[in-house]
């Protein structure tokens, strides 16, 4: 008996060693240090639930500026939800000083361009293979800088992500740096002064992955009307962008409902794949709505 146990643990250590990494421990946040090509030094943390579903889904949950994988792991509801629904959560950790995400360089704003978006997409690909996960259930969400990155990933990897939920971000390409800066702050965008037509913003998305003609992730976007860090106009620009991408008429939404999903919030549905939720009187911190996220992603 004892020998068998010893043999079993020896074999699992050997298996992990062969793969050149420590196997993530189910039920605790674990770092993956080797996952194929990583063009940037973004950290890869993963939460594999103790009750892993067969052919599990994957949620990528992306932290805000000054945040970390650990902080977002503790401060977001996805760990608990992953135990409930059996999906895996990937928590990337920004490699930049100040730890915002690079959403400004040409590299990150291009499919397979060698930026942070590329590194995060490779974390997903590793996880799909390693856990025989379900490629039709891969989702992304994030807050603030992580919300910006959610839009960037939806734009650069429409082939990987099936849906995205953005909390208090800016649209894809809005933070672009004219001088090609990596992880550059863009005041014009943050102040809500980068405005364009739905078609122009859609073209920004199309140009991030030229020639791509497959399906695109459905998008849900939250923003507070009293956001002074990323001005509320960024909500409108983000809705224009995704409405434009899907060919919906931004000026004629399908429906607008007050006090949905809660008092003071307004839900606007532009079409089957795009909806926005505007939170009246709320600042830069719009609370995550885990149970609603589960519905949007299709787990609940
Ligand atoms: C900021 O972003 C806008 C697009 O939103 C771009 O036109 C402008 O050049 C950027 N500013 C800088 C300083 O890079
Ligand atoms: C979409 O792209 C694929 C691969 O590049 C190509 O084979 C196909 O003809 C394209 N379809 C359309 C409708 O453009």
- How large, in whole angstroms, is the Cα Rg? 19 Å
The oligomerization state is single chain
Provide a count of the helices.
Answer: 9
What is the helix fraction of residues, given as a range? 25-40%
Average pLDDT rating: 94
| CATH homologous superfamily heading | Alpha/Beta hydrolase fold, catalytic domain
Please outline the major beta sheet: 10 strands, mixed
CATH topology: Rossmann fold
Low-confidence stretches: 1-20
Shape from CA axes? Answer: globular
The CATH class is identified as Alpha Beta
| Beta-strand share of residues | 15-25%
Classify the secondary structure makeup into a structural class. alpha/beta
Task: Give keywords.
serine esterase, Rossmann fold, 300 residues, alpha/beta, carboxylic ester hydrolase activity, 9 helices, glycoprotein, ten-stranded mixed β-sheet
What does the model show?
Helix content is 31%, strand content 18%. By secondary structure, the chain is an alpha/beta fold. It has a single domain, classed as Alpha/Beta hydrolase fold, catalytic domain (Rossmann fold, 3-Layer(aba) Sandwich), CATH 3.40.50.1820. Helix 5 links the parallel strand 5 and strand 6 (163-167). Mean pLDDT is 94; it is low at 1-20. The structure holds 2-acetamido-2-deoxy-beta-D-glucopyranose (NAG) (2 copies). One 2-acetamido-2-deoxy-beta-D-glucopyranose is lined by residues 211, 213.
